[in-house]
Amino acid sequence: MNTSYRARRGELRTYFDRTASETWARLTSDAPVSRIRATVRAGRDRMRALLLDWLPADLSGARVLDAGCGTGALATEAARRGARVVAVDISASLVEVARERVPAELADAIEFHVGDMLDPALGHFDHVVAMDSLIHYPARDVLEVLAELGARTRRSMLFTFAPGTPALFAMHRIGKLFPRGDRSPAIEPVAERRLRRMIEDAPALAHWRGARCERVSSGFYKSQALELVGTGAGTLR
Predict the structure, then answer these.
(1) Class of domain 3-230 as given by CATH
(2) Whole-number Å distance between alpha carbons of 167 and 169
């Protein structure tokens, strides 16, 4: 992977482990939060539900990668459906919270890792889900991530991106006026049309096609989900 991906990954690891670990643990719990963070919590809950809805209701025997698992909410729900989940995050502190929150009856169904979602040692998958873990990378890096994961994935890749809209750019300019504690890491907005075209033109993604796409908007949370489906030839059997 290129230098910009590695550099940005390091910045995010520092942010989540040294600056915002407690904030994110609280955001992803039922604890009271500020009005701004409440909109983000609601948006993330809606996005998680959407991505889970795009996965099969019965995941028995399927191997699922939760790429950027955070505190483990999506991984837990996938495990409830019978999936064997590999949950990875660059933040050791968030993975620790995730391990603590997993119900005892699902502990054996989820394999947690601290590290890079692209680590080939994680293996092969039927489905990959990357919820809000790629929104901090430029589109060219997102394509490289999808290409590497796509080479080890059989059926679908679900990921989110920050939609490049005037409203989102304005929202983030306004966000700079709020206390630093209420800010999230910098994102890299990209227009859906441009991203789809880049995916279609990428030789490494020739055997993947864009399918469902849906945006979730909740106050200061703006994110868009895109489904890539393997077309058979060139994807894992």
Answers:
(1) alpha beta
(2) 6
Query: What pTM, to 2 d.p., does this model score?
Result: 0.91
Taking alpha carbons only, the member of 202, 136, 191 closest to residue 168 is 191
Structure tokens at 81: 């459906």
pLDDT in tens, 96-132: 999 999 999 999 999 999 999 999 999 999 999 999 9
pLDDT at site 165? 67
User: From CA 127, how far away is CA 115, in angstroms rounded?
Assistant: 19
pLDDT grade for 19, boundaries at 50, 70 and 90: confident
Indicate the angle between helix axes 92-101 and 73-80, nearest 10 degrees.
Answer: 40
Are the beta carbons of 150 and 204 closer than 8 angstroms?
A: yes
- What pLDDT score does 146 carry? 98
DSSP string of the chain, one letter each residue: --HHHHHHHHHHHHIIIIISHHHHHHHTSSS---HHHHHHHHHHHHHHHHHHHHS-S--TT-EEEEET-TTSHHHHHHHHTT-EEEEEES-HHHHHHHHHHS-GGGGGGEEEEES-TT-GGG--EEEEEESSSSTTS-HHHHHHHHHHHHTTEEEEEEEEE-B--HHHHHHHHHHTTS-GGGPPPP---B-HHHHHHHHHH-GGGTTEEEEEEEEEEETTEEEEEEEEEE-STTS--
Tokens 């895109």 found at: 226
Residue 58, judged by CB atoms within 10 A of its CB (0-12, 13-18, 19+), counts as: exposed
